Records
---
Amino acid sequence: MATIFGHALSAVTLSFVAGKKTRDWLFVRTMIYLSIAPDLDVFGLLIGIPYESFWGHRGFTHSIFFGVLLGTTVSFLINIKRKRRGSEFVLATFLLILATLSHSFFDGFTNGGHGIAFLAPFDNTRYFFPMRVLEVSPIGLWFFSARGLEVILSELVWIALPCLGGLCIYLCLQKFIGDKSKNDS
Ligand SMILES: [Zn+2]
């Protein structure tokens, strides 16, 4: 896994795309929870579910199918509460799905553990991306070790910097489009 900080940071960054109206605290918090949710499968290890099995770590809960299912279900729950409809509902749903899928996306770049069952339940094969640049985060309490520093530094370079860069580009584009439509009207 990448760390919960790396996953949460990518979710917060994605939440900016929702716009001011949608991006309330409930929405941002939900994006963060969804970006971490696939790793609930680590508890299976404690009750003896084998890592490489369908329900094992990085198995079904890390699949695209699960991400779409969970993101859509949660979207209905929070968007009904907020009375979102039309394009606002569609965008919010899309982002909640992306937040869930971002978890497996980053796990696919880690350099340890087993691969990700992206295609479960149709195919339980575990995959990694060709570039495995993220230091894998060990399971357990490790933050204050030298290994912890290595993991955090790797996430700064491969998650935090791209998130920051992407966010800057997005906000600049939004400002540019906003200014242009103001001038045109
Ligand atoms: Zn994971």
---
Amino acid sequence: MTVRPLSCILVLLPLSLVACTSEETTPPNGDLECDVVIVGGGVGGLHTAFRLAPSLGDKVCLFEKEAQVGGRIKDISLDDSDPNAPRVGAGARRVMEGQTVLLDLATELGIQLETPPITQDLINARGGFAFSKEGLVNLYPGLTPDPGGDTETALYDKLRFGPERANAASYANFEAYVRAVAGDEGYEFLHDMSRFRADFKVPLDVAGYLDYLDEEWDVCCTPSYPIGGMSQFPLGMAAGATEKGAQIFTSDPVASIDRNADGGFDIVSSSHKAHADKVVIAVPPVGMDKIKGDVVDDIKAQQVYKDIVGVKVVTITQWWETAWYANIVNPNATENARVWRGWTTEHCLNFIEIPLEPYAAAANVTRSVYNDDPECSNIGKTLQTRETTLWKRL
Ligand SMILES: Cc1cc2nc3c(=O)[nH]c(=O)nc-3n(C[C@H](O)[C@H](O)[C@H](O)COP(=O)(O)OP(=O)(O)OC[C@H]3O[C@@H](n4cnc5c(N)ncnc54)[C@H](O)[C@@H]3O)c2cc1C
């Protein structure tokens, strides 16, 4: 049987990236008087607008540079002309059970979530295949399998709670710290088993990354997927904020933010000059680099800002004629034997994700995520430049 994708779309998420048109209530180039200006219409900016709009109404002004809101939540449809065509996330896709703010927001916005059972990973590393990370530990000489059966978590526990953490600041970067605490093979194992392999390759501040791990590693456990895609969150918040009077301007990038003599702020966008008592900047560093003014300059001068390292992520969304992957199962599993994620360490394609939630599964759509190691991200960038000819519609 020849299996070929019906179509695939590649998206480079430069730590950024959907759909709400603004009701333009002010003439282009008009002055705006706002209590709060919000720069950026990703979930961060939109949540701020959604919460402020009931009390401040049209004194909430949000500027988004793209034609659509959503930022790094970007759902892709096989048929852009059909608003009811299934959409699947090129960026964020799921809500974990520990993300209570998002889960409560889903209830508030009437977003339905699907929670498929946790199934199998099929992992390829160092020439071996296994249905669990633990099944590969023996390919890393010198690494002792954890008696509890979860060597990966045991190694992370060592990094987070071991005595060497007290000396973390003395290491040049996270890689050096991991090699010292977990050994070279421990480092390679953690790198290979990670979804975020760049974290082990780019020079990250040790203390900062350990703080992040403290927040992230224990986030539990079962993922849920919004029917209609993750963009239901930004779309719902944009609609709710607009309904309460907030002004959302799309295709209107902010060019500068300066303090003014009144103790407030002057914000210049491509179509507006806004004056505000407060300003909320909800853009990633890649966006900050294009904004001028003393406010942004002051933020950029802070060490904590300078320490941020951007990592590019490439995802490819593919629709298939048949769900050929449905036959990939763990023969030893007594239940939920299907594979939902195939990983590899052999090349730049990090993993292919097979949606099992009914909404996306019915669309025969998969998502592949490139390894985010710097050299692999660059290959993704090359692919993206060919997007219109090669990748947009194969
Ligand atoms: C591949 C991938 C998978 C992910 N998976 C998950 C997941 O499953 N679950 C999860 O919870 N999170 C996930 N995340 C993380 C999540 O997507 C982000 O944390 C979240 O979307 C960030 O929102 P934000 O509002 O902070 O920033 P962004 O989404 O980046 O929004 C910033 C906005 O600012 C706009 N902007 C930039 N410059 C300007 C300017 N000068 N003027 C006006 N607007 C400007 C941008 O266009 C953008 O819309 C994932 C991220 C990626 C990349």
